[in-house]
Design goal:
The protein has 529 residues and is of the alpha/beta class. Helix content is 36%, strand content 19%. It contains 19 helices and 18 strands. The longest helix is centred in the first third of the chain and has 18 residues.
């Protein structure tokens, strides 16, 4: 099958079209909210972030900020979120109400002005900071040519200070400010440097979540550092200085009361030399105040019982529908229609981190030497796009690919495949392997970060496990592990059935993750200064 065309998502009539999940989520009735009056142990929590689903998204960060506040809200906390009012925000018909206009924000010795609007989604108040010069432009972080906006430290530093100013204007006293990634890491510094004597924040603590340590927000120090107003005495190598440049994430790590990342193994990896793009000594210095919490998954959309994109729903108790999903996958990707052949799926960004070059190196050997079909969905590196896009011509009926972004096809691949491959060089959490488990599609992964934490390696003696792992980042290791998975499929069907059952029994729901965050917040609040 040629790239880009035949595998395009199935067109359905408007009537048959499933309602986008986002809309359904948006229109849900807000939960009944406990407040401090009704629940004395309820916390006031302020999320400050650059992205939040369903309003604006470039990656997993938006999913976390879109889901976690809601689940914390369900646990009785007053959680509010501050994000920018970008040009591309999609409000899904929700009303926007003005909150403060104009609002003056102190950046160093300058006062700058913005407005704030709000909406409510699933019981969570979301504030949008409107500053057109900063946020009313193409994309979030870079221009159409993929060049970082040179004023990103101004833009996100302003967002951080605006979030704290807003607390004054709406009389919200946060117990905890939760920052995410380099963009809002400075809010942890503002609390300590700028607002240290501010009565509103006297008991406020901060937590910083690192979703990917590869992105640190490193920019020239001049003119940004002066603008931020965080005092030159904090421009030192243990805080904001990074070989003469400004490193926003590093500064945030120093000033945050607690730091976490999105899996235990990734937390371990990035506190070791070479693992954190230079952050290791600073993360290690946090000692007991740095740890990992695995991301949750929204099973309302990523579960074969509920999935509106797949040919037939199925469940752990009754997996018969998976057969139809497999057929549908084969049809869509013009693969030979065969119920018995093993199918390996892959979905992801074609970037160095994801290790697709290892798959590229071995995919011909895999399909030549094993009875297997392979389906690939992805976009990114132009060389890999060309390579995977052209493969169906060389292996008709055995390899299918679609070069592009299609949420629908991602669901179809998860449901119809027998295995799902993720050869990542590093992976802070990873979502697709967690989806795969729920669909009974056994993950084949390199044991790194969240992949290592969520996938349990198959034990040939006991049939324990829920997938297949390899450790060396080499094509050879990948090839032999795929061979091991495929031989299990054909030679040990009883073990396959057990592994699938184990996989489908796993629970990575947001309810569990939100409880872990709640515990972490309480630890932050107990932390003495
Ligand atoms: P990352 O955030 O590093 O991209 P994750 O595994 O955490 O990796 O999340 C990636 C998400 O993006 C998953 O939901 C995955 O299905 C989706 N995704 C990635 N590439 C594509 C694509 N080409 N088409 C559809 N969905 C995609």
């Amino acid at each position: 099958m040629a790239a880009k065309k035949p595998a395009a998502p199935k067109k359905k009539s408007a009537a048959a079209q499933p309602k986008p999940t986002i809309e359904r989520a948006v229109k849900q009735k807000p939960a009944v909210i406990a407040t401090r009056e009704t629940n004395p142990s309820a916390m006031n929590i302020l999320f400050v972030a650059a992205e939040m689903a369903p309003f604006i998204k470039s990656g997993g960060l938006a999913d976390v900020v879109g889901a976690l506040p809601h689940y914390l809200r369900m646990r009785g906390h007053d959680v509010r979120v501050v994000i920018p009012k970008y040009r591309d925000n999609d409000y899904h018909g929700l009303p926007l109400t003005p909150v403060v206009s104009p609002m003056g924000v102190w950046m160093g010795t300058n006062q700058e002005w913005c407005s704030v609007l709000q909406t409510v989604i699933n019981g969570v108040i979301v504030y949008f900071v409107e500053h057109d010069a900063y946020f009313n432009r193409f994309g979030m972080y870079h221009d159409a040519g993929m060049h970082d906006y040179h004023d990103n430290p101004h833009r996100y530093g302003f967002l951080c200070q605006a979030a704290l100013q807003l607390c004054h204007d709406v009389a919200f006293t946060p117990d905890l400010v939760h920052a995410h990634d380099w963009q809002t890491a400075p809010v942890c510094a503002y609390l300590k440097v700028w607002h240290q004597n501010d009565p509103l924040f006297v008991n406020t603590r901060s937590m910083l979540t690192i979703h990917n340590a590869a992105y640190q927000g490193v920019y020239p120090a001049a003119p940004h550092y002066d603008y931020l107003g965080l005092n030159w005495e904090n421009f030192t190598p243990d805080k904001f200085e990074d070989h003469g440049r400004l490193n926003l994430l590093k500064g945030g790590v120093h000033f945050a009361d607690m730091v976490n990342t999105v899996s235990r193994t990734y937390a371990h990896e990035i506190s070791r030399p070479f693992g954190a793009f230079g952050l290791a000594p600073y993360l290690s210095a946090k000692a007991g105040r740095f740890f990992g919490i695995i991301n949750g998954v929204d099973y309302r959309t990523w579960s074969p019982e509920n999935d509106t994109f797949i040919a037939s729903k199925f469940s752990r108790k009754d997996r018969s529908g998976k057969k139809q999903c497999k057929r549908d996958l084969q049809k869509r990707f013009l693969l030979a229609e065969d119920d018995d052949v093993a199918i390996i799926g892959a979905v992801g960004r074609f970037v160095h981190q994801k290790g697709y070059d290892l798959l590229a190196e071995k995919i011909a050997d895999i399909v030549n030497n094993m009875r297997v079909q392979v389906v690939i969905l992805g976009t990114g590196d132009p060389g890999l796009e060309r390579f995977f896009g052209d493969l169906p011509k060389s292996f008709p009926g055995r390899i299918g690919s679609y070069i592009g972004f299609s949420n629908e096809l991602a669901h179809v691949i998860e449901a119809g495949s027998d295995f799902f491959i993720m050869p990542s060089l590093y992976e802070p959490c990873g979502l697709n392997q967690i989806y795969s488990l729920r669909y009974g599609t056994l993950p084949i992964v390199r044991a790194t970060g969240g992949l290592d934490d969520t996938v349990k390696n198959y034990n040939e003696v006991s049939a324990e496990g829920n997938g297949f792992k390899f450790w060396d980042a080499t094509g050879t290791a990948l090839y032999y592990t795929v061979g091991w998975a495929i031989s299990t499929y054909y030679d040990r069907p009883a073990h396959m059935a057990t592994l699938i059952d184990n996989a489908m029994s796993e629970d990575f729901s947001w309810e569990k993750t939100a409880a872990e965050y709640e515990t972490a917040y309480r630890r932050v609040l107990e932390h003495q200064h």
